[in-house]
């Protein structure tokens, strides 16, 4: 089965949903941000501070290219769609679910979170609007997360995948 990749803006709940969905599907759950932190031995804010965003993006692409294409659930970093190479890889190889969340809801969830270097910047509205189309273009499916718990979102994706697989088998 094609691996399931979760994309969406910071705070859309990719990492939170990952654990629940991986458990439901009985598949390994991987997170590109966590993978980068493990392989570099640095936190994401440290990488941004010491090496800058461009180096972080290189590491993100290297990490993505090594991720499984089958039998796994993967949560990506919020900026994974910034790179054309990443978008093409996702579209070509895996099943992509876009967790859509309004900016007002993300504001409520993240507040003054300081673990996301790009969340501090005041251009977050512009960043959000610029990325929307990229998430939409890259995804096979969109799930609305506003007003839903991570458990509800995971269940919705689970049902969606079941339906996709049933349709594919023509049952
Ligand atoms: N459906 C939800 N309802 C309410 N709060 C949520 C929901 N999903 C996630 N959260 C909360 O929002 C915050 C961010 O969630 P999470 O880390 O899963 O986002 P993310 O999409 O992985 O972000 P990033 O792209 O930065 O990795 C956490 O505090 C989490 O508890
Ligand atoms: O939206 C983004 O560009 C980011 C989101 C996080 O998942 C991390 O990958 C990092 O903080 C950058
Ligand atoms: Mg995350």
Automatic annotation (TrEMBL):
Identify the Gene3D superfamilies for this entry.
P-loop containing nucleotide triphosphate hydrolases
Query: Which GO terms fall under biological process for this protein?
Result: amino acid biosynthetic process; aromatic amino acid family biosynthetic process; chorismate biosynthetic process
Which family does the entry's similarity section mention? Belongs to the shikimate kinase family.
**Which EC number(s) are documented for this chain?**
2.7.1.71
The broad enzyme category this protein falls into is: transferase
Q: What does this protein do?
A: Catalyzes the specific phosphorylation of the 3-hydroxyl group of shikimic acid using ATP as a cosubstrate.
* GO CC terms: cytosol
Reaction(s) the record says it catalyses: shikimate + ATP = 3-phosphoshikimate + ADP + H(+)
Q: Which organism is it from?
A: Sediminibacillus halophilus
In this chain, Mg(2+) is annotated as bound at: 15
Superkingdom, natural source: Bacteria
Where is it located? Cytoplasm
Any note on cofactor binding?
Answer: Binds 1 Mg(2+) ion per subunit.
Q: How does it assemble?
A: Monomer.
Print the keywords alphabetically. Answer: Amino-acid biosynthesis, Aromatic amino acid biosynthesis, ATP-binding, Cytoplasm, Kinase, Magnesium, Metal-binding, Nucleotide-binding, Transferase
The protein's name in its UniProt record: Shikimate kinase
Q: In which pathway does it act?
A: Metabolic intermediate biosynthesis; chorismate biosynthesis; chorismate from D-erythrose 4-phosphate and phosphoenolpyruvate: step 5/7
């Amino acid at each position: 089965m094609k691996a399931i990749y979760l994309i969406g803006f910071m705070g859309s709940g990719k990492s939170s949903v990952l654990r629940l969905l991986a458990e439901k599907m009985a598949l390994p759950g991987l997170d590109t941000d966590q993978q980068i932190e493990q392989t570099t031995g640095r936190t994401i804010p440290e990488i941004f501070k010491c090496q800058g965003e461009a180096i972080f993006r290189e590491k993100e692409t290297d990490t993505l290219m090594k991720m499984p294409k089958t039998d796994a659930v993967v949560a990506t970093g919020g900026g994974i769609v910034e790179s054309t190479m990443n978008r093409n890889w996702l579209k070509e190889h895996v099943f992509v679910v876009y967790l859509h969340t309004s900016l007002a809801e993300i504001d409520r969830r993240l507040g003054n979170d300081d673990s996301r270097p790009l969340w501090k910047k005041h251009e977050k509205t512009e960043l959000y609007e610029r990325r929307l189309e990229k998430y939409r273009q890259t995804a096979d499916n969109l799930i609305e997360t506003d007003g839903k718990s991570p458990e509800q979102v995971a269940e919705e994706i689970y049902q969606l995948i079941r339906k996709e697989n049933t349709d594919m088998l023509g049952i």
